[in-house]
Structures are given as C-alpha cells and as structure tokens.
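Bumping my old thread because nobody answered last time. Still need a sequence for this structure:
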C-alpha cells in the first residue's frame, strides 16, 4: 500500500511539475538576414519582405512586439499565439522615399521564448 501511494504521488504531483517546467516556445527563422538585391529607384517605392519562421518548441509562441531601426520600415505580424509546429511570417514594408544607395535595416523581435529578442536584418541597394 505504501508503494502504491508513492506511485500516485509521483504521477499526480511530481510528473506534471517536471513536464510543465519543460514547456517552452522556440522560434526558428529560415533566414535572419534577407537581401533584396538591387532595385531601380522609383517614386513611392515600397519593398515588401517576409521573414518566415516556425515554432519548434513545446508551447504556443507569442510575438509581443517588433521594433525597427527607423521609421521608414513598418512590421506586421500575427497577434495570435502560434501553435507548436506551425509556420508563419513577419512581414516588413520598407518605404524607400528619397533613399538611394546601400540599405541596411534592423528589426528586433520580442517573444515569449527563452531567447527574448531575435535580431533580423534586411539589406540591398537602391539604384
């Protein structure tokens, strides 16, 4: 009877604590730097880029915020939790305006993962 009680204690109290302590979302990007190449300048040009990722962890992933290095880039992402094993993307619109030459922009993705912030980059040339 004593062994039986210890088994129940392990199954109902200790095992869930061990399992739930392991639940973590993990964000894995296909690429963290995207090169859009050389693009001919045009007035009101907007370049749209998508950073694809997958939640490879064991809990839902939440993208809390995406900050940019300048006001010429606008990020879009889902506000809903991303299920385990699901692929999604962060879309970025770069508004060229009067910028000609080499372009390098940085994005800071804040999530509920143990790696709280992921840094992404776009680069290219406006000719």
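Sorry it took so long. Here it is:
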């Amino acid at each position: 009877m004593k062994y039986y009680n210890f088994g129940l204690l392990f199954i109902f109290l200790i095992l869930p604590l061990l399992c739930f302590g392991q639940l973590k979302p993990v964000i894995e990007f296909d690429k963290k730097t995207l090169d859009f190449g050389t693009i001919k300048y045009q007035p009101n040009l907007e370049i749209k880029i998508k950073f694809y990722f997958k939640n490879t962890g064991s809990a839902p992933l939440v993208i809390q915020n995406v900050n940019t290095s300048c006001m010429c880039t606008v990020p879009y992402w889902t506000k809903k939790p991303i299920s385990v094993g699901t692929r999604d993307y962060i879309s970025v619109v770069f508004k060229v305006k009067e910028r000609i030459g080499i372009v390098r922009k940085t994005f800071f993705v804040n999530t509920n993962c143990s790696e709280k912030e992921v840094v992404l980059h776009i680069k290219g040339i406006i000719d």
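Residues 65 and 110 are 5 Å apart (CA to CA). Let me know if any region looks off to you.
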